[in-house]
Each structure stands twice: as structure tokens, then as C-alpha cells.
Design a protein that fits this description.
The protein is mainly α. It has six helices and no strands. The longest helix has 27 residues.
């Protein structure tokens, strides 16, 4: 049970950070502002990339936090962070201004939690209840 609580805490922490970054792209900068910033960073297809990043970070962060569709969400969040790492942050090195340490940690954490989200994930709780009802 302790490992499930640890996974829940991890999902909550990582999910909140992704939600905050997605919300920032939608509500603070706006999708047009995000696309303009992405274009300035050399991100290909900046408008499509802005939409992808915002939706994956905001929606995926919420789903990861709740424990819904975690393998798919974990992969999508990891792909989002891989793009940020390779396209934007890699030239800045691991540490310091614009470094890739945050996107690296978020990407690998999302991937790990996506496949090891613990039994306190909403998907697992619903599945276990259905299984119990079917055998009753």
C-alpha cells in the first residue's frame, strides 16, 4: 500500500506541474501567444505545436493526476517533453537558464507514472470494482 500512496503522491505532483504549464499556455499567454513564442524558439509548426502542448499538458496533467488512461497519457506527456528537450532546451545544457533538467525529469516521471501509477489510480479502482461486481 505504501508504494501505491507514493505513486499517488507522484501523480499528483507531476500532474499539477503539467496542469500549470498547460494552463499558462492557454490562459496566460493564449494559444496565439504560445505559438508566437514557439515560432521564436524554432519549434516546427508552431500553431499546431502550441495546441498539442497545451492540450497534452493541461488535459494530460489532469488525467495523470486522476489516474485515467495513464499509459497513453504518460507516453503523450513524455513525447511533449522530448520535443521541448530536443528542439528548445538541449543547446542550453542540463543546468542553468533554459536548461533541460525540468523537461527531462517531467518526461521520465510522466512515463514512469504512466506505467506504474499504483492501485489508487481511478482506472484501477473502477476496474477492480467491476471485477468484484462480476464475481459477486
Amino acid at each position: 500500500m505504501l508504494k501505491d500512496v507514493a505513486a499517488l503522491i507522484g501523480r499528483i505532483g507531476v500532474g499539477v506541474v503539467f496542469i500549470a504549464h498547460g494552463w499558462q499556455k492557454v490562459a496566460e499567454w493564449g494559444l496565439d501567444g504560445t505559438a508566437t513564442a514557439f515560432a521564436g524558439m524554432g519549434v516546427p509548426l508552431p500553431t499546431l505545436s502550441a495546441w498539442f502542448a497545451a492540450i497534452v499538458e493541461l488535459g494530460g496533467g489532469a488525467l495523470l493526476l486522476l489516474g485515467v488512461a495513464t499509459p497513453v497519457v504518460g507516453v503523450l506527456l513524455a513525447v511533449d517533453m522530448l520535443g521541448a528537450l530536443v528542439i528548445v532546451h538541449l543547446p542550453n545544457g542540463l543546468l542553468g537558464q533554459g536548461g533541460y533538467e525540468l523537461v527531462l525529469v517531467l518526461g521520465v516521471a510522466a512515463l514512469a507514472l504512466g506505467f506504474n501509477g499504483g492501485s489508487l489510480a481511478l482506472d484501477r479502482v473502477v476496474k477492480d470494482r467491476r471485477r468484484a461486481a462480476a464475481t459477486a
